[in-house]
Design brief:
Elements: H1 3-20, E1 32-34, E2 40-47, E3 51-59, E4 65-71, E5 81-87, E6 93-97, E7 100-102, E8 115-122, E9 127-133, E10 140-147, E11 158-167, E12 170-179, E13 194-195, E14 201-208, E15 212-220, E16 226-232, E17 242-248, E18 254-258, E19 261-263, E20 276-283, E21 288-294, E22 301-308, E23 319-328, E24 331-340, E25 352-357, E26 363-364, E27 367-375, E28 380-387, E29 390-391, E30 401-406, E31 413-423, E32 428-430, E33 434-438, E34 468-470, E35 479-482, E36 486-487, E37 490-503, E38 509-520, E39 532-540, E40 550-557, E41 575-581, E42 585-593, E43 596-604, E44 615-624, E45 630-637, E46 648-655, E47 694-698, E48 702-716
Parallel strand pairs: 26-33
Antiparallel strand pairs: 1-12, 2-11, 3-8, 3-12, 4-5, 4-11, 5-6, 6-7, 8-9, 9-10, 13-24, 14-23, 15-20, 15-24, 16-17, 16-23, 17-18, 18-19, 20-21, 21-22, 25-27, 27-30, 28-29, 28-31, 31-32, 31-33, 34-48, 35-37, 36-37, 37-38, 38-47, 38-48, 39-44, 39-48, 40-41, 40-47, 41-42, 42-43, 44-45, 45-46
Length: 720
Amino acid sequence: MNASLQTKTASRFLLIALALGLCGGSALAQTCQTSAASWKNAAFAAQSAPFTAAFDATPNAAGVDAVTGLSYGPASGYAGLAAIVRFNTGGTIDARNGSAYAAAATVRYSPGASYHFRLVVDPAARRYSAYVTPPGGSEVRLGSNYAFRSEQANVSALNNLALNSSVGTHQICALAVTPSAITPPQPPPASGCQTSATSWKNSAFAAQSAPFTAAFDAVPNAAGVDAVTGLSYGPASGYAGLAAIVRFNTAGAIDARNGSAYAAAATVRYAPGAAYHFRLVVDPAARRYSAYVTPPGGSEVRLGANYAFRSEQASVSALNNLALNSSAGTHQVCAFATSAAPVTPVDTVPPVVAITAPAAGVTLSGSAALAAAASDNTGVVGVQFKLDGANLGAEDVSAPYGAAWNTAAAPDGGHVLTAVARDAAGNTAASPAVTVTVRNAVAPPPATGGADRFGIKKLYSTVSGGKEWISKWDNGAARTFASGSWDPYDPWFRGRGDATYAVDGQGLFKISGSVPRMYIYDQTYAQSWRNVEMTVYAMRVSDSGTAYGGIEGVARTNHSAYGASETVNTCDSRGVDARFRYDGHIDFEKETSHPNSVAVQNKPMWSGGMPKNVWIGYKLVVYDLPNGNVKLENYMDLTDGANGGTWTLVNSLEDNGANFGVGGTPCKSGINPALRLTNDDARPGSETGKPNIAVYWRSDNVGTNGLIYKKMSVREIAAP
């Protein structure tokens, strides 16, 4: 290439870069950045005219909380961002609209998958539209004409891309900034329009007694308005005078009235200043209607099919009035028109529904999974579970229909479960009742049980002559030690794995590192652990959100205790444990051959993951039964040990040797991975042939001082 051509090529590239806004120092044009709890920023040329920002984003895990935003200058907090998209902890993608996050469509994300984002921004109007393209899919609109975050209502230019993640991480690559044409939303012209107020506005039209369609355009003036548009017979002076009603509600969505309550067959969120086209297909004689809405630039969505007139209008047979009212904010209605409509047969067939889990007559504790099967001639749109006649959680709007019930919130004793199915026409039906028994209360500890030196209740008494280990983290001596080292003040407590440990001397044990493992055993290998009750209080502070990490105690194991690696002595590595997991679930796990394991009894406990900065009391009890089986019990206390703790049984399992570990990897040929791990000194397959010398605690991918323990103890107990 000659010098002249090289110069022209370089100049052309520079012009392209300037046009793309990449000469302001964008660190992501050619490279990638990974988010963290500290803010990451990448500058680009300041944009005050309409522009498009596009980039690729990849979440590292499920349930992350990771934001990508545009700002003016480097951001050091969420309030500094104007336009924001987010991978949220609920597993979906959303965007910021003024003071809250929202999404016009549900887009779920998967760990490790790359999503292409496109933000079309108008800095002068302080609005933007957000789009995302899932892997292998088509572009989906997350939000149209969304307002900048409230704190950025006065910004008039943007020049920075900012990343942050409070849970998990995400990677941003291939940032490109280009000029774009903005087509502002077109509200209908003012002629023929009415604006709502707290006083009723009415417009008469020719009386309609045969089926007809009423169509109009409506524009909300703000987010979170409470603005209704309805059809009535004669001028309306109150809500009860309306028969068919659509509404911009205070939650930021659009719904319609179905008899005695508002409902919506689909979630349609609205943006201030945007025009929404409504179509109501009405049958006055049947006193029913169907409602449809078309968002700006979108397709028509059905809000409700065959909805009943408002209950107070159950006898009206003609409509001749359009009425408007707003108790919060305002909205403008324009271009109202009526036309004849064909008669649509009325669906009066109710759904059929039955509870499939739990079975009638069972006794439940902890978190119980509810399930129901439902069908309908036109389709089920939701199932609402009920406990003793009251709603249990939110309606499930997609099959398979289920709910998680924390039975600890209900008193012990008998309870009645039902499920109510709803179809698009508003027909409902209840399932046959299922009666179950809740049994969460723990029996008072035996007379010899008492409390440990921290005042924490012992659920089972210490066996005569049995061992009792209790932490020495409150001995006034602050210290640190690492994996492979013993606590210098405790010859039975050893750190392993890949982590560091800090003791403040006042009772707190702080963990940092990717593979924290903490063993409790006799250094002389003379005393083994048999039936045990393991207790700790733990606080989640900072971690990478590894789903299976959390609060976990392991019993019935020789895992690494005798010196040989667990990858060598794979039969000695076997053990049983209970997990309070970071993803908000609890379960039991049997390690069958390190690192292979099988988990059972998985139950949801916390929505959105295990809470942070809260003390959670944990007990794992493992003991042999007279029939040769092994009983595992997992308890929780959320009182921080007040009055010894209010210990609730959240999970239990009787391991019969055929139900726990089935399908796992055997530790050696001929050894059943589902084998019961009893307290017998000799277990089939053991490489050392020695008793279960160890119990241990573990977690995964903990941040600096990201997991804190206190009041830890292990005791040998007298099995009941």
